[in-house]
Amino acid sequence: MRIIKILTVAVIVLAAHNVFATTWAETEVDDPIMECKRCGVQEPMSYGSYIYSWPSKYDLVFWPLTDNGGIWFCEDSGFTGFIGDFDEISEEEKKTIGEYLTKSYTGKKDIKSKLELLENIYKLRKKDDVFRNRLIRVLAYWYEDLGDIKKANEYRRIALEEIEGYLKKEMSEGQKLDYLYLAANYHRQLGDAKSSDKYLQLLRTAVDNLKDDKLKGHSAFLLELSEETKQIVPGGILRPEIK
Question: Which pTM was predicted?
Fold first, then answer.
């Protein structure tokens, strides 16, 4: 159970050509693993639509998951998860996660250690394929941001393989649009321009045949982003060289 208590407000300034700010409030939540323990975490207080213009958009992952505050961490137990995702954990999951943390948690709280905990703990939780693919893309973005380009692109390769498998199945129109866009980006990033072009065309066709009017804004956003896909330079960071 979460009891929100505002302690301090931190302003984090991020830059991408222009300077934007997001504000956070400190709060506490129950540790899912250790009874009677509380975890100091952060919750967003204010932000703007500019978060959708930040570079993580090419992986289709967005703030706050791309910020330290978006990864909740319990220092006592080592339990780590995405912001707000500390509930709905079964007793069986708690037991398995507790055993993992007893063996593996070293007390380190740097971001790389948290990312490792995040990935391994989610392997032990019941999540659907959409969530797990997004987790892989979040990890890809984080490792790129930390300078480990090789590892970032390894995650993207995994995400792409999954996405191409999912695209062979039935799914919602919105999910299909996202995956077509991501497939185009990731193929380009991994050096396959021909496959990237194929998925760009499939994306345009899917948008032209869109049935759900509620997706018009999102589809327009993806089409705008896809105009930059051909500028992606394989092997480096996932940032199109806009000309």
Answer: 0.91
Neighbour count for residue 137 (Cβ, 10 Å): 25
The secondary structure of 112-136 as a DSSP string is HHHHHHHHHHHTTS---HHHHHHHH
Mean pLDDT of the chain: 92
**Cβ distance 223 to 207 under 8 Å?**
yes
Instruction: List all residues 6 or more positions away from 67 whose beta carbon is below 8 Å from its beta carbon.
Output: 12, 22
Place of tokens 């709905």: 88
CB burial of 141-163 (b: ≥16 within 10 Å; e: otherwise) equals: bbbbeeeeeeebbebbebbbeeb
Give the whole-angstrom CA distance, residue 195 versus residue 155. 18
Residue 108 has pLDDT above 50, yes or no: yes
Give the integer Cα–Cα distance in Å for 105 and 103: 6
